[in-house]
Each structure stands twice: as C-alpha cells, then as structure tokens.
Amino acid sequence: MNKYLSIENLNSCFQKQESKLKQLNELLHHYSLLAAHVFVLPNVEKGSEHDPITEITVNKITGNEALDLGLNHYLKLFIHHNNQNISSKAAVRLPGVLCFSVNQLQYHSALSLIEEINKLKAELEHIVTIQSGVNKEQRFEFVHNQLHGLITLNAYRTITPLLNPDSVHFGWANKNIINKVTKDQILQRLEKSYHSGRAVSPYSREQWAELVAREITDIKKLSDDVVLKIKRPVKVQPIARVWYTDQQKQVQYACPLPIIAFYVNYGDNKPKIGELSGYNANAIVHRHKPKAKPLELIIPRLHLYREI
Prior knowledge:
It holds the Pfam family Ter. GO terms for molecular function: DNA binding. Keywords: Cytoplasm, DNA replication, DNA-binding. One of its GO terms (cellular component) is cytoplasm. 35% of the residues lie in helices and 25% in strands. The strands form four sheets. It has a five-stranded mixed sheet, covered by helices on one side. A four-stranded mixed sheet has the order 10-9-6-12, with no helix packed on it. Strands 7-8-15-14 form a four-stranded antiparallel sheet. The chain folds into two domains: 3-173 and 237-282, Replication terminator Tus, domain 1 superfamily/Replication terminator Tus (Replication Terminator Protein (Tus), Chain A, domain 1, 3-Layer(bba) Sandwich), CATH 3.50.14; 182-221, no CATH class. It has helices at 3-29, 63-74, 104-131, 139-144, 152-156, 183-195, 205-220; strands at 32-40, 55-56, 59-62, 96-102, 161-163, 167-173, 176-181, 228-233, 237-244, 249-254, 259-264, 272-273, 279-280, 295-299, 304-307. The protein has seven helices and 15 strands. β14 (295-299) and β15 (304-307) form a beta hairpin. The radius of gyration is 23 Å and the shape is globular.
C-alpha cells in the first residue's frame, strides 16, 4: 500500500482508539463498582531495561483509587504520560482487576466498546508492521514522525473483559520461548544479514560481516539432521488465573494491565480476588518441570542451541 495512505490510516486509527478509550473511561466511572484491586510495580528506569530481574516488589491499591489508576492506565499511550526518569523502551505494567455490577444492557454496551477498542489496537499494529511496508528498523521512525512519543506496546495491548468469574487470582510467569528451527532456516537468516551490508553496534561493517561469515561456516559444519532450537528468555510477567465454578474451568491470562470483570445480576456479593505477591527468582519452586534434552549454545546473540 502507498506509504502516505498508511500514514493517513495510522493517524485515523489512533485517533479513533483514543476517543473510544475515553468513552470507556467515562462509561465505567458511571457503573456500580463491586471491587477494584491493582498492583503497582516498580518503574523501569532509563538504562536498566535489559537488567536481569530477580526481585519485584508489589504495592496493592484497592477501591476507588484503584479504579482511577486502572482506567487512567488504559489512556497512558505516550512517553510524556510517565515520569521523565522512566524508560520509554519498557511499557509500564499495572496488573489487577476492576469488577462491576451491571445489568445485561450495561454489560453489552461496555463489551461492544471494548471489542471496538481491541479491534482498533489490532488494526494499528497491522498498519505499522504490515500495511506500511517499512522494515523493522524503520518502524520507530515511521510511527514517531506521526505520533511522537507513542509507546507502541501500550497502544497494541488489548483489554480483557470477563463475565461472572468466580475468582481471580494472580501470579508470575517466567518461561523461555523455545522454537525449533532447521539448519537451512538459520543459514538463510545469516546469509541475509551478511548480504545486507549493514553494521550492528558495537561492530564496524567489516567486523560484523566477518562475525556473520564465521557463524555461517559454523552452521554449515553441522550435520543435516541436527536439531536446532532458539531458546529465548522472556522477562517475568504478571498473570491472572480466572476460575469458573459452573464450567469447572480455569483460564490464564497475561495481565500487563487491569482485567475488567462484569457481574450481571450479581447482587451485592463480593467477588473473590487474590493477591499478587512480590516476585523473588531465588524462591521459585517448580511443581513439575519436565526433563529437557541437554542443549549446547551455538550462536549466543541468536539464542541458538543444538540438542546433544
């Protein structure tokens, strides 16, 4: 698609999202609040984005203060919405749940609005990553020339609505993303990098080409039936575990921003909401950790391993 048309679509889509988010904020402020719990996490300061996380302290907020924090969090889409010392490379997370007592009409009005917002978020991501036609390295410039200071991850993150959950508990997820890849796929990736003619900091163009050439040679030496895996560490994330008694079913959600739980004709009963405890990497106990095949690191920068 024409780049200028993509720019027009980007601005139009974002303005619609902002407008709908403000509508949701106003709508939910008029609904009957059953309970609101949000868990404030420490800010990620500039320069510490890639530091390993071993501990996270949690500050619990409840009631109307939690409601205001939660609803305002959906509107925090720009760097200037945060303090100056907070990193613009790490999206601020606010796990929690906002619970409302509603009738059927109120539920459907809110659900329709949330679905519109989530659709616009997906559309915005599609415009930036696909429709614009710009490569990954140019996306930042493409977005910030139009929407200066936009935190794209905040703008992409969808809102999770729930209907009549019996309980909402919280925890932490800390897993690796593991993808199986073939020798040919890795060679194609390396050769594309080699022929691009670009340099990657802190290397000069010549040093980078030399490094990638060595990596290509190392991969070619491997047998054709080698089992290769990319095992990429993921930073610890807050999650919500939602229980439905009638269905005897638990559903787990990523929870970087508050979940919204609607209770239709629920009366004055208070929903069961758990705590989010502080995170301590050294205190984790795995209930069941399947035995994995031993791996040997082949290319550290790609997190590429081979089974041995």
